[in-house]
Amino acid sequence: QRSSSRRVWVRRLIMVGRQVENRGVETFVERGQVSPKLQPFFGAAKIEFGPLTEIAGTPTRGALASISLRVRSSPLTATRHPSGLPKDGLSLTETVFAVRLEQQRRPPMSGTWLITDVIDTASIGSNRDLSA
Are the CB atoms for 54 and 63 separated by under 8 Å? Predict the structure, then answer.
């Protein structure tokens, strides 16, 4: 029964031209450890969650949500660059991220929330000082 439903799902993916991906936690962690955008999360000393903002779903898409995260670096990342080379001094950094999520409407993942964006707010224009 289970393998039959899997074959149907894979066949559907092939028919619509999508690639089958392994989106498990293990793959996320493996790829995230080498991602410069996600490195502040690994071994972080502290992660603070901001308020959750949710927009209700419509007939054409699932609900949307966004949340801010304040990530404080660990002492290990404060003493080493992402490449592993030692830094000259100690620099405990704090990074603020905006995370966007979308709730899936269709099976087999209906009701599941997927992360669509992880945005380092230091890199977007709205957080830059415009007075200078």
Answer: yes
